[in-house]
Amino acid sequence: MTSQQSKESTEKNSNTAEATVEEKPATAPAEPKTESAEKSAPSLEEQLAAAKAETAAHYDRYVRAMADHENFRKRVAREKDELRQYAASRVLEDLLPALDNLGLGLAAADQPNADVKTLREGVAMVQTQLKSTLEQHGLKEINPVGQAFDAHQHEALSQQPSAEVAEGNVLNVIRVGYSLNGRLLRPASVVVSSGAPNAEEKK
Length: 203
Known about the structure:
Mean pLDDT: 84
Number of helices: 6
Order of helices and strands: HHHHHEEEEEEH
Number of strands: 6
Distance between the termini: 173 Å
Strand content: 15-25%
Oligomer: single chain
Radius of gyration: 52 Å
Helix content: 55-70%
Strand order of the largest sheet: 1-4-5
Structural class: alpha+beta
Largest sheet: 3 strands, antiparallel
């Protein structure tokens, strides 16, 4: 066999092998196994049990929240009631010295040699002490003699003519009023001037 024939034989064998390789069908990829996935997926019974457990947990939190809210409401109501009962304790405590002095004045008035002038001065001192104590707690006296009538703070009982007080101003205060921290407690009862009397009124 010549070298030329040997070369042709080798090329023929090579082409035959390539054809054999090309004709061999490709191996299909293996399908994934679903057995483990089916085992990991929860059943309907398991899903229902989990939903029931979650619902029970939410209901338990709801019951606890409602109980906490009810306890908070009761505590606020109790504190509000206590505040209402003892809100005036500070004011009353500050008024006790004036009350004590008033008792001393009454005891002095019972003495056989009691002096009316001295008793009057003592009562005036107690009044001043009482007003000072109340002013410290925001109480303000409304005594508008000579001022313009204010329907928001004054209560007009009547009108009288006056040559000294201008028309519409307060001529006389029958009962003083009071306000607490800017809020009206009692209006001042007043007599309002109707101006200078005319000739007929003078007669």
